[in-house]
Model the fold of this input.
Amino acid sequence: MPNNTPDVTLWRGEALLHEDLVTPLHDHEESRNRLLATIDGRTRVVSPEQANSLVETMRPSRGIEDVEHTPTGPRFARRGLFRGSLIGLGGLLAASAAPRYSFAADSGRDLLVCVFLRGGFDGLSAVGPVGDAAYNKARGNLRIDSGLALGSTHVLNKNFSALNPVWNAGEMAVVLGSGHPDVTRSHFEDQDLCERAAKANVRSGWIGRHIASSSDASGTFRAITLGSRVVMSLTTSAYQSLAMSSVASFTLESSWNDGPKLMADLEAVYGDTGDVMAGQVKATLDAVTSLDSIRKQTYTPANGASYNKDSSWHTGLQDIARLAKANLGMEVACIDYGGWDMHQNIGLPTNAQGQFSSMAKDFATGLAAFRTDLGTRWNKVTVVTMSEFGRRVEINGDGGADHGHGNVMFLMGGAILGGKVYGSMPTLTAGNLNDGDVPITTDYRQALSEIVSKRLLNDKLDTVFPGFTPGASLGIA
Done:
């Protein structure tokens, strides 16, 4: 939920996870949480113990994977990646609004801010079709019939009103009927599918493949995770990902307050291994040095921008703005916004305190503050929202909406050809629906492919989106 205090606990050893080998998938029913791994050419569900064994077999290390602090100094001990106090399955799958970053040398590309609306965002509670009698009947008093006019055919829920200036400036676009054609209505399967933008046997994410195919592995570090895990979209075997809890606390400190000694010990243990672990530790230590000056400075948003310090979504966006201004070569920031799985009590759009309304306001005001804070840097930023699926057209008996298919995407930025609605959605009569769902009329990879080629300057779309052939251009960027 937007008002939760962000989890800033950095689990020991989290930087050493290898998500190109083991992928954590989350479902709102905890019993359906899964770990996936590719074994003998097949993607299988594995236990934490099996996942640990696989990683140790595939990536044997001559070093250590954890540091225990004792009164006499550090004691290095090999531990399982998924066992004991190091990190548990629950922690691995925990939702977080904390961003994940990728850095490289200055490339002239836009900064991509990829927002994953986890839980299944209800596009029909955000954007309503004007004059659709079937929609009005199915949604009843939850229908959207007032707000910002998106042309003559659709209207934006008034609780997103902080984004009205972005739309009016031509810097925000809405894509209708978006989704992956193979959607299953399963949270963990569809989140995985959406972030891979490829078949399950492709052990990488679309952003990771973009980074790997667009430039050398330059810069101090290729990807950073704030929070509980490396986001699947950033996963690739071409570079290592690094974990940190927050910008403010990103440093290596020991219980006896001798950070430099601990850093020296880690470098000595790992430095001569010559394998992926050595590269990871070097990235960690280099990152500590690079961010040390930023960590020590008090950050003041620019241009009168105001973030809500009680919202983890707002503080996550503020951290992105903070690093964007630090000129470290940040090229990607991935940030989650969870809590959209509203099977009950979506709430009236006229009730600002309702479940969807309050989250919509938090979402919109955070992005508005982010845009204001960036100033002219906004012209080189592209924001993309994604979600695993939409919701069903008809409201259920609990005042909520169940898992569906087609959805909406928001795209924002100084170079987005906004102030327009892209894609299509038919009238929501029963004959036009996919088993009661909004049909997917726009493959979400079409919109992403135009962002990758036009704003991220990468024409290797067959590598970034294997198995997908772009269709007629939407003209969105």
